[in-house]
From TrEMBL:
GO molecular function, one term: hydrolase activity
Top-level taxon of origin: Eukaryota
CDD domains: PaaI_thioesterase (cd03443)
Domain Thioesterase intervals: 53-125
Primary site of residence: membrane
Annotated membrane topology: Peripheral membrane protein
Localisation: Cell projection, Ruffle membrane; Cytoplasm; Mitochondrion inner membrane; Mitochondrion intermembrane space
Pfam families noted in UniProt: 4HBT
Enzyme type, top EC level: hydrolase
Family: Belongs to the THEM4/THEM5 thioesterase family.
InterPro entries per UniProt: HotDog_dom_sf, THEM4/THEM5_acyl-CoA_thioest, Thioestr_dom
EC number: 3.1.2.2
Primary gene name: Them4
The protein's name in its UniProt record: Acyl-coenzyme A thioesterase THEM4
Length: 131
């Protein structure tokens, strides 16, 4: 039994509440501390469907927020999203793998400004941009 004051070692951003793999948020994040950048490989599963065959925009917003939030946590510690602006360009097909690339643009006092792109892994398709 864990005591309330003991630190939790599992630091997953999304807890798996679905027994089947590959149907929800499937992702891995990588931190590049020298560039103040977090890159995420994301594969949306069938439970994230919006328009038939494509990921719901809300799931794209969620993975963007989690990726840039992880980047902000590295720079500033404890953070929360104050404003998230997303421009959607192309839908993300379910089961495809996309690159969510976030970086710190500037820091002003307690505020951390970040930007993010969601693109195909070959860089040929831009799905969304966010700040």
């Amino acid at each position: 039994m864990k005591l309330a004051h003991e630190k939790k070692k599992d630091t997953r951003l999304f807890l798996r509440s679905i027994e089947a793999e590959g149907v929800g948020f499937e992702y891995v994040m990588f931190l590049n501390s020298s560039e103040k950048r977090v890159v995420c490989l994301f594969q949306p599963g069938s439970y994230l469907e919006g328009h038939p065959g494509f990921a719901h925009g809300g799931s794209i917003a969620t993975i963007i927020d989690s990726t840039i939030g992880s980047c902000a946590i590295f720079v500033a510690g404890r953070v929360m999203t104050a404003n998230l602006s997303i421009n959607y360009m192309n839908p993300v097909p379910l089961g495809s793998v996309v690159l969510v690339d976030s970086k710190v643009d500037k820091v002003e006092g307690r505020k951390v400004f970040l930007s993010c792109k969601v693109q195909s892994v070959d860089g040929g398709t831009l799905h969304a941009e966010a700040t």
